């Protein structure tokens, strides 16, 4: 097993300290930060995402793996920034106005980061206007809205309307998700993508960024 495969394997087990040490070692050995990111950290997070989708691992496993990913990312970030490597795309994410549930949203965010996307996390209780403002300011390709309450998913329609009003509808893909949301709802409000879980949401966001 080479060092990048080792990083991937340790990340999958959530071994934060070892991931951090091996990322440092890989940098010292002159391995490119981009390769450490893609073939080590992202590759490991992809496996975790797939297992999570198939119910082979659960929320705590993903959170622990994500913590290991962040430990590695912290070391790579300055190197990636100075080498001018661009992220795969930008996603504005948040939980809709009135809604304080953020565990699922954070999982989606972590999986997206694991795909090499830049994430602007607006947190919880986010009104439609804030999604649109952040998308414009950050030149985002995707707005990702999470809702866990039937009483707050309506804000997703407002996001679609505000994006249209702002004249950026053709520039931004609107993704929706969360327990009460489904494909029919997504279509009925004119959003673009519904995904039921964090791993498939991250895959779809990456694909959407590539198309824009
Ligand atoms: Co609340 N809560 N809660 N709650 N809570 C639910 C959602 C509920 C179903 C419980 C129940 O009644 N059985 C119910 C909603 C009913 C409804 O509207 N249909 C409910 C309620 C009613 C409430 C309050 C109103 C309770 C009260 O005060 N009377 C209140 C509302 C507060 C508010 O938001 N304004 C409330 C409060 C809370 C806590 C604060 C205590 C806490 C949240 C803590 C936090 O998030 N920081 C909480 C919790 C933990 C839950 C349950 C138990 C768990 C939710 C969760 O985190 N699941 C939930 C019941 C349940 O689901 N069993 C419940 C794990 C998480 C990984 O799943 O978020 O679905 P989920 O995310 C998944 C997918 O949905 C998807 O990917 C994730 C991972 O694969 N996904 C996306 C999520 N967002 C996505 C976005 C995407 C794509 C995929 O693209 C953009």
Model description:
With 212 residues, this protein is of the alpha/beta class. The chain folds into 2 domains: 3-82, Orthogonal Bundle (Methyltransferase, Methionine Synthase (B12-binding Domains), Chain A, domain 1), CATH 1.10.1240; 90-211, Cobalamin-binding domain (Rossmann fold, 3-Layer(aba) Sandwich). Helices cover 57% and strands 10% of the residues. The protein has 9 helices and 5 strands. A 5-stranded parallel sheet has the order 2-1-3-4-5, with helices on both faces. Helix 1 (3-12) packs antiparallel against helix 2 (16-28). The structure holds CO-5-methoxybenzimidazolylcobamide (B1M). CO-5-methoxybenzimidazolylcobamide binds next to helix 5, strand 3, strand 4 and helix 9.
Helices and strands, with pairings:
Blueprint: H1 3-12, H2 16-28, H3 33-53, H4 59-82, E1 90-95, H5 103-114, E2 118-121, H6 128-137, E3 142-146, H7 155-165, E4 173-177, H8 183-188, E5 193-194, H9 198-211
Parallel strand pairs: 1-2, 1-3, 3-4, 4-5
Helix pairs in contact: 1-2, 1-3, 2-4, 3-4, 4-5, 5-9, 6-7
The chain binds CO-5-methoxybenzimidazolylcobamide.
């Amino acid at each position: 097993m080479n060092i990048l495969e080792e990083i991937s394997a340790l990340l999958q087990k959530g071994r934060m300290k070892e991931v951090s040490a091996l990322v440092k070692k890989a940098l010292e050995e002159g391995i490119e930060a981009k390769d450490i990111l893609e073939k080590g950290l992202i590759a490991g997070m992809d496996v975790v995402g797939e297992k999570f989708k198939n119910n082979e691992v659960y929320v705590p496993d993903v959170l622990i793996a994500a913590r290991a990913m962040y430990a590695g990312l912290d070391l790579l970030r300055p190197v990636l920034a100075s080498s001018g490597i661009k992220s795969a795309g930008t996603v504005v994410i948040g939980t809709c106005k009135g809604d304080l549930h953020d565990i699922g949203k954070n999982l989606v965010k972590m999986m997206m980061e694991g795909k090499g996307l830049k994430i602007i996390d607006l947190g919880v209780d986010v009104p439609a206007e804030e999604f649109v403002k952040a998308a414009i300011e950050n030149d985002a390709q995707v707005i990702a809205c999470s809702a866990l309450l039937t009483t707050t998913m309506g804000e997703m329609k407002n996001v679609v309307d505000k994006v249209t009003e702002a004249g950026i509808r053709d520039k931004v893909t609107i993704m929706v998700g969360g327990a009460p949301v489904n494909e029919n709802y997504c279509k009925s409000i004119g959003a673009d993508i519904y995904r039921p879980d964090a791993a498939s949401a991250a895959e779809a966001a990456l694909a959407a960024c590539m198309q824009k």
